[in-house]
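Researcher: Go.
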Amino acid sequence: MAIDRKPVTIHYRRYVNQPGRPTLEQLVTSAMQANHNGAMVAARYTSRIQTVNADNFLNNIFRQQSAGGEPLAFGDVVHFTRGHLQAVLQMAGPTSSQLIVAQMAAPEQSEYVHSQMFWLIKGDHVFVIQSISLQTEALEKYLAWLLSTYVPGWGGEIALATKFDSGAVGGDLEDIKELVIGGTLSGPQVVDAQEAAPPEGEGQHVVRDIVRDQNLVARQSSGREMARGVLEAIMNHDTAAADRVLQAVPADAELHVQVHIGYKTRKRRVDKTSLRNLEVGLRHLPDSQLSVVAKGGVRSPDGNIRLHHNASVTLIKAQFGESEIVGSLLDPTDALRAMGQAYAVMLADGKIAD
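Model: Structure:
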């Protein structure tokens, strides 16, 4: 029986705001209520499409309250490309030697979706369920476009800072002694043909495994880019020298590159302002590339330092004839529930303030 729920990580972010200024929730609500071509922005989806070259980003769903009537701003961002062709495998009889991989256009008045992410804003608190191609940075850019387009007088950028989780370092955040940023660069990989081929009878699982592992591949790629950038920087931005170092790495080895950011002070603890600046400056760094050294030399596991909430969200089902098939899309209503629960839990635990 297919599982109809998906484990998700709800990432916490905080809008970098100025005292006395409207909250992000108020700004987004104001943009949605603005009049555009004789109708509210929230009333027409065409008013909410941001076009960047061939890519389109759409806030398709927008709600202003929870199921219990609590005010908030909840929505999604859908990434699509007009006229995109989807690869399909044309099935044939069992005696065929091979199948045809073809390209199919979306049905009339439809577009294929690349990815979808969900967000919830309560005051300046932001909760995000990211997708493979839509991370928090994409949400920052979309909200900046939305506000600059529909909120008179608003200008600037959106910065959604991360927040270090005191529970992940075993104490107060001021006990953090050092931040460790690291990535891995591998030497040339030689793959044996027999190892690369799927075991007999398991070919049908390959596509599913590739889709499942895409998020891991994306994180690894980001880590490699960061590591290479550091390697070039310490070699005075000499790309050729960095290439020579990488070429010297054995095929079965990995080159680990780390940056340590630490503070030496006469005070017993590091000022919170310094940590807050790092929460903003390092916000786009993948979770897997960040760890900390806390008081007593205790080092946190990679990927657990930032505030987040683990949950599960219902998957949307589709009816095909007499069969009900569980898809890969998250149910927006249940995503709202899970993100509202994340806000309540963090608030009750004292990890965020109302």
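Model: The helical segments are 24-33, 136-150, 193-196, 206-234, 239-247, 272-281, 332-348.
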